[in-house]
Amino acid sequence: MHRRIITLAAIAALATAPAFSAAADTPERDHRALGIGLVAGGLFGALLGGPPGAIAGMTFAGLATDREQAATRADTLEAQASLLEQERRSLLSERMSLKASVDELGRQLEHERGLAANAVDAASLADGLEFAVGFRTSSALPPGEIDAGLEALATLVGALPSLEVHLDGYADARGGSQLNRELSQARAEAIRDRLIAAGVRAERIHVTAHGAVTSGVEAQAADPDGWALQRRVNIRLESREGRLASKP
Description:
There is one protein chain. The chain is α+β, with helices and mostly antiparallel strands. It folds into two domains: 2-76, no CATH class; 127-246, CATH 3.30.1330.60. Helices cover 71% and strands 12% of the residues. The protein is built from seven helices and four strands; from the N terminus they run H-H-E-H-E-H-E-H-H-E-H. It has a four-stranded mixed β-sheet. It is rod-shaped and about 145 Å long.
């Protein structure tokens, strides 16, 4: 008789397990665990209290299994929520970092615009600036004391891309016209070479040889002081932007 009760309880547990499983609407592995729990609970209850005990055991086992499955699902959802929160914080941190980068680029752009505006003003101030370098008689070697000045000039021209350098070479009235032209050319090229060595690009330098001074008050000078003023290279700065703007 006792064995029959146990057998009935097992059959009842196996019969009721699918019903409980379908009603719970849980994943397949949860269904399987619920069915096993019901069977085990039913058998345990049948051993202790016959058919009533089997029913009570199955009910208890089903509740315990449901509670365990709910706790497992809750833990899974909490873990997913934690991962999502970490991802949200990471995205927020990345967004803040990108915003900081955009702000820094904006500040740099504003700074560069200010520098460009200042460069335009400086180029307009330097436009037309002119000075001369003197040479010894029959020499195309620039005096050594002008090296620092030429380096400073090269720095200025390098910082203002719109500026061009014009070099006009001259000789005094003594000597033949061919010799004077060649000498004035060599003097202008010597200054050009010094500027290139200091960093000025060759295409921004324009050289013109004029030979001897043949007109004006300078041409009338016939003494060593007058000749010294004639032996020179004039260095003139011109703004390319200003020249283009002046054309109709």
